[in-house]
Amino acid sequence: MGLSRVPDLDSLELLLQVAATGSLGRAAAAHGLSQPAVTARIRGMERLVGFPLVNRGARGSTLTPAGALLADWARDVLHAATVLDAGIASLRSDREARLRVAASLTIAEHLLPRWLVRLATERPDTAVSLAAMNSVEVGHTVLHGDAELGFVEGPQVATGLSAQVVARDRLVVVVPPTHPWVRRRRPIDAAELAGTRLVQREPTSGTRAALTAALSAYGPMATPLLELSTTSALRLAVASGAGPAVLSGLAVGDDLAAGRLVKVPVQGVDLTRRLRAVWPEGQHVSGPARDLLRIAAASRR
User: Fold this and answer.
1) Which key words tag this protein in UniProt (predicted)?
2) Helix (H) or strand (E) holding 263
3) Domain stop point among 95, 113, 135
4) Residues 77, 182 share a domain
5) Are residues 88 and 216 in the same domain?
6) Which has more pLDDT, 60 or 54?
7) Domain of 267?
8) How distant, in Å, are the alpha carbons of 85, 174, 187 from that of 95?
9) Do residues 27 and 19 lie in contact, with contact meaning Cβ atoms separated by under 8 Å?
10) What is the CB neighbour count within 10 angstroms for residue 21?
11) Which of 254, 249, 237, 253 has its CA nearest to residue 199?
């Protein structure tokens, strides 16, 4: 669209001020400008549109007939610009006032609460909605624009997402107190762990994906004994005697302290994993999402 002869909005507002006050000097005062500056602005508009806009006289300034017509048209343009500006402001305000977060279960249960408390201290007017799901679902949610920021615990980040490590976690092998592994004097071997039927999360879980990646050198893992969709269900199943499981150290701290579960040492494999924040690739993290990302990253120190 060619708009080579359309004055800028500030100049149009200045023209309307001249029409309303009948004076270049009063128009200048209303805009916080000097009279020579206003005169120069009017002359610049006249050169742009190609015809005189203002008649200057000893008793003041009036618009020419063409200038008056341009001023009438300018009112509609300025009104439309005001509506546009208000709409943009409302969208920015809405974005600043809310934050949608998607997080894997371990992060949602054990890390995000204290991060969100800190965010509430810094941004008391920001409303946060949190959706807890597995890591694959978090990636889909962020990619589809249903959350501004996500947190995942799997070893891979979905294509189309940028990522930043915000924390580290260690997976631990846990069994009920009556399990035979409790009486072993030596750690279990990584190959034995891979060949053992475990109580596991669903295949798209970040915990399961991290364990599978860590044990990939020992061949395909044994078929799960049970597959459960939440960490709480896994902990209860293990405590009830279903079998061993590999869970986040963050998730089983209370169970270990209370003696409901027992940690079994394992050798030959590093079960440390990185927890990441994710957002759409190519997008700039801003507003409350940027602040939450900063708070999460600071927790590593």
Assistant:
1) DNA-binding, Transcription, Transcription regulation
2) strand 262-264
3) 95
4) no
5) no
6) 54
7) 104-294
8) 15, 43, 51
9) no
10) 16
11) 237
Q: Where are the beta strands (DSSP E) in 65-160?
A: 98-103, 127-132, 149-152
The total of structural domains in the chain comes to 2
Using CA atoms, how far apart are residues 296 and 115, in angstroms rounded to an integer? 6
**Distance between CA 178 and CA 239 in Å, rounded?**
9
Query: What number is the average pLDDT over the span 177-186?
Result: 94
Q: How far apart are CA 241 and CA 175, in angstroms?
A: 8
CA angle 235, 239, 241 (to 5 degrees): 120
User: DSSP label at 22?
Assistant: S
Kindly state whether residues 111 and 197 are assigned to the same domain: yes
pLDDT in tens, 122-153: 988 888 889 999 999 999 999 999 999 999 99
Confirm if 19 and 70 have CB atoms less than 8 A apart. no
Distance CA 176, CA 181 (A): 9
Q: Do 212 and 161 sit in the same domain of this protein?
A: yes
- Is 174 found in the same domain as 48? no
CATH assignment of the domain containing 45: 1.10.10.10
The encoded tokens of residue 237 equal: 């199943």
Residues 275 and 141 placed together within one structural domain of the fold? yes
Domain boundary residue, one of 95, 116, 151:
95
By CB atoms closer than 10 A (0-12, 13-18, 19+), residue 58 is exposed
**Residue 300 covered by a domain:** no
Are 133 and 259 part of one and the same domain? Answer: yes
Judge whether 179 lies within some domain: yes
Could you tell me if 118 and 138 lie in one domain? yes
| 242 touches 174 (CB < 8 A) | no
- Angstrom distance (rounded) from CA 140 to CA 55: 63
- Model confidence at 242, pLDDT cuts 50, 70, 90, reads very high
* Overall average pLDDT of the 63-72 stretch: 90
Percent of the chain past pLDDT 90, that is, above it, reads 54
Asked whether residue 268 is domain-assigned, the answer is yes
**Amino acid identity for residue 254 in this structure:** D
